[in-house]
Amino acid sequence: MKKSTVAFILVVLVLAGYFAYDAEWGRSFFSGLFSEDLKIMRENSLAFMEDIKFKDFKNAASYHHPDDQKKADIPHLIQRLFKIKPELLDIMEYEILDTSLDSTQKRGRVKLKAKVHLLNSDKIESPEMILYYHKKEDKWYMELESSLRGR
Amino acid sequence: MFNKHQYSILSERYFECLLGDFTALSWMIGLAPLVSAPIVLRWQSFQPTDTLYFVFALSTVFFGCINACGEISKEAAIYKRERLFGLNSGAYLASKIKILSLLGLVQIGIFYFIIERYLNTDLVPVLTFNTLFWSYFAGMSIGLMFSRWCGTTLKALISVPLVIIPQIVFSKFVLPQNTLKGAALKIEKLMVAKWGFEALQHCKKGQIVWGDYLFSITILIGLSIIFLFLTLFHLWFAGEDT
């Protein structure tokens, strides 16, 4: 094969690799290669955000520990975090910025960035939030104190 | 007709020449971080604006134009001689397109990496890269056209501002869009940075407008084909002349 063609293919492969890693599924795949725990937390966080996006609060509560599920008032949490009623919140996009575990490997956190449309004021905001996880009985559960980091 | 064998040899020769001139190659690739640095400094603490997207599109048009503007004119004598021995114009132009596109992928890759790393662009990554690449490609097509039609490298280099300044003058950032009337309105439609900018506007995260995005990209590709055809026409014409 000609040198220029090889160079072309290499450049395209490097770019494809970069974009694959940059994409949500790519990061999830690569983090899953190194830690199954990180992969689970990422998947749960994305599923949680999807549930909120489609206002499936019952399913959104299911990522919490069974003891906490009844206490998990997701619509109230949303109202507290975004200062808006859930029905006036349109989650347009979300992405994971960072996933980390502590030294004991029993606690983790996932930092997310969302793009939301506040329907009552027609404003678009990009809040960041952190979802906290605890490992109990060999399973990862979301903690209720998950909080908004900034706007 | 297109000669594939010649295209392969010419691409290889051009690639080797480019690698041989390491200073020029470094300068070309170095343009990407040099141009992205002031953009990052200016917008680092601000939310993305339409002006930022326009600067992205304009920068990539500039990369394409500056990379290509001397590439045919500097070989004018060689081209003329090789035409006597049956050089195929299409293969010659295609070899330029291939290697300059490769250079563009590297340049745009570095440019994109820096702006994405340091700025909040609020754009969908792959679509942004695609737009920046086609803006580069359109700029490269204009550069190749000037390189051929101007005849000498110096004239072609001097012509670069003639490409870049109208992109700014006819944009909505100098005067409001509704002030464009008559001929100015038609000229504005030929501005490749405008279409790159519009494509970027339509690939914001969570707000992708596929129809408008694809329309802008199609126009960019269409304009590139027209500029390349004009280049090829001049290459043919000169070939007949010898």
Give the helix proportion of chain B (percent range): over 70%
Percent of residues of chain A in helical segments?
40-55%
Q: If you average the pLDDT of chain B, what whole number results? A: 92
User: Residue-averaged pLDDT of chain A, rounded?
Assistant: 85
Q: How would the blueprint of this fold be written?
A:
The complex is a heterodimer of chains A (151) and B (242).
Chain A: H1 3-22, H2 24-34, H3 36-53, H4 57-61, H5 66-69, H6 74-82, E1 89-101, E2 107-118, E3 123-125, E4 128-136, E5 139-142, E6 147-150
Antiparallel strand pairs in A: 1-2, 2-3, 2-4, 4-5, 4-6
Helix pairs in contact in A: 1-2, 2-3
Chain B: H1 4-20, H2 22-43, H3 50-68, H4 76-84, H5 89-118, H6 125-150, H7 153-169, H8 183-189, H9 192-201, H10 210-241
Overview of the molecule:
The complex is a heterodimer of chains A (151) and B (242). Chain A is built from 6 helices and 6 strands; from the N terminus they run ααααααββββββ. With 151 residues, chain A is α+β, with helices and mostly antiparallel strands. In chain A, strands 1, 2, 3, 4, 5 and 6 form a 6-stranded antiparallel β-sheet that branches. In chain A, strand 2 and strand 3 form a beta hairpin. The mean pLDDT of chain A is 85. Chain B has one domain (4-241). Helices cover 78% and strands 0% of the residues of chain B. Chains A and B meet through helix 1 and strand 1 of A and helix 1, helix 5 and helix 6 of B.
